[in-house]
Write a structure and sequence with these properties.
By secondary structure, this protein is mainly alpha-helical. It is 74% helix and 0% strand. The protein has two domains: 167 residues, no CATH class; 46 residues. Helix 3 runs antiparallel to helix 4 and helix 7 packs antiparallel against helix 8. It comes from Hydrogenoanaerobacterium saccharovorans.
């Protein structure tokens, strides 16, 4: 029985791993960039890795570097965290059907649901004979380990290799640019990128660059909710 279960897990891992290779390349670079930035801001490999392991919210982790190194403002930190990660509410709702009936695995699947894992799990189907729950579990686990491992590597390298980190924080901006370009290439999601751009520019003109992040996200959310049926 135990041998059969072990074989089933190996099958699921073997089926999931190839699908996560593109995520590995991205998470390794971005995770290392995050680890190095944390190191240069006074937070060693232990703290950066702990943050990645516990929080596991890439874009918010980059934003949190500024929060950690500036005057403590818990209300602004809470609002920014909610706005940056609000998309996971919609991810979670759309994955209810796929994750239904998976028992205790679903707790880790919920915790580890990031943009990249969602893009794989929402479209990929486990091969015939592969347990569905184990397949989604390993997709999530691999992506999680890539991010945490990349962070650890960056934190360690940042402490022993002296080099300039100027411009390294642009990695997050580059990530969002790539995601935005991906939306423009997909005709089905092009409208969302357009809505985000127009709303952000409008808020930028009204409140300026220093105060636009949270208001623009609120405006985008309101516009999407109002126009959800038509969109």
């Amino acid at each position: 029985m135990e041998e059969s279960r072990s074989g089933s897990l190996r099958q699921a891992a073997a089926a999931a791993f190839p699908l996560t290779i593109p995520v590995f390349t991205g998470f390794l670079v971005l995770g290392m960039a995050y680890g190095v930035l944390m190191q240069t801001n006074g937070y060693g490999a232990f703290w950066s890795t702990l943050m990645s392991a516990v929080a596991f919210c890439g874009s918010m982790q980059f934003a949190a570097i500024t929060l950690l190194t500036s005057a403590f403002d818990p209300v602004a930190a809470l609002l920014l965290s909610i706005m940056v990660n609000a998309r996971h509410l919609f991810y979670g709702i759309s994955m209810l059907g796929k994750y239904k009936g998976l028992g205790r695995k679903r707790f880790f699947l919920i915790f580890g649901l990031c943009d990249e894992t969602f893009s794989i799990a929402s479209t990929a189907q486990p091969p015939e004979g592969v347990d569905r729950g184990s397949f989604y579990f390993f997709v999530t686990l691999f992506d999680y380990l890539y991010w945490v491992g990349g962070t650890l590597l960056g934190g360690l390298l940042g402490s022993v290799i002296p080099f300039s980190t100027e411009g390294l924080d642009f990695a997050l901006t580059a990530l969002f640019v790539v995601l935005f370009l991906g939306q423009l290439e997909n005709a089905g999601s092009r409208i969302y990128g357009l809505i985000g751009t127009v709303c952000s520019l409008a808020v930028l003109l009204l409140v300026g660059a220093d105060n636009m992040v949270i208001p623009s996200m609120i405006v985008i959310l309101i516009v999407l909710l109002i126009g959800r049926k038509r969109i």
